Amino acid sequence: MGRLVVIEGLDGAGKRTLTEALMKALHDSGETVTTLAFPRYGESVHADLVREALHRGHGDLADSVYGMGLLYALDRRGAAETIADAVKQHDVVLLDRYVASNAAYGAARLHQDADGEFVRWVREVEIARFGLPVPDTQILLRVSPEVAAERAERRAGTETGRAKDAFESDDDLQVRCARVYDQLAARSWLSPWHVVDGTTGSDAPALARSLVHPG
């Protein structure tokens, strides 16, 4: 059985860049690795509904924290078998966002912390009820909300189809979300966490070794 590793962080933190660096480092060390990113836009009807809602579609759907949270959860539920199969076939499975994203953003929208009702609800729905695989470890790619916002703005201006959505455009939400992420990591929510400085960059080979050979 391989290891399920999740990369978390604010929009614009650099999760895709870190995923690519870890993939290379793992390949170079002889490990088999595959990746999956959430939401699965273009593959899952639930993910597509999320994207449309975040860009002002479907009336007031985006205003419902629990409604959006359930769509995110259903997107992952649809990929549960794919994730389980990937873990059986590879040494490492890297996920760009997972259950903790739902917990962090929903709690932040409701002005709750990591001990609040929304985080408990996410765990009950996604892990206990939907039976999603629990990560072996999670990586928090930590950057300041200001740096994340600057990167998201730059990405929106240079990449086709990457216009900022309602969550990315809410600076106060990003600040609260960063705080909840820190709390989740400190509490080892679901599994142990590694905290990586996303401003200075990470030592991908060293991080890859710690993922394959923890402790």
Automatic annotation (TrEMBL):
GO MF term list: ATP binding; dTMP kinase activity
EC number(s) from the headed UniProt entry: 2.7.4.9
SUPFAM superfamilies for the chain: P-loop containing nucleoside triphosphate hydrolases
CDD domains xrefs: TMPK (cd01672)
Thymidylate kinase-like domain residues: 7-186
Keywords from the UniProt entry: ATP-binding, Kinase, Nucleotide biosynthesis, Nucleotide-binding, Transferase
Transmembrane segments: none
GO biological process: dTDP biosynthetic process; dTTP biosynthetic process; dUDP biosynthetic process
InterPro entries: P-loop_NTPase (IPR027417), Thymidylate_kin-like_dom (IPR039430), Thymidylate_kinase (IPR018094)
Cellular component, GO annotation: cytosol
Catalyzed reaction equations: dTMP + ATP = dTDP + ADP
Enzyme superclass (EC): transferase
Stated role: Phosphorylation of dTMP to form dTDP in both de novo and salvage pathways of dTTP synthesis.
Family assignment from sequence similarity: Belongs to the thymidylate kinase family.
Protein name as annotated: Thymidylate kinase
Natural source organism: Amycolatopsis bartoniae
Taxonomic placement: Bacteria, Bacillati, Actinomycetota, Actinomycetes, Pseudonocardiales
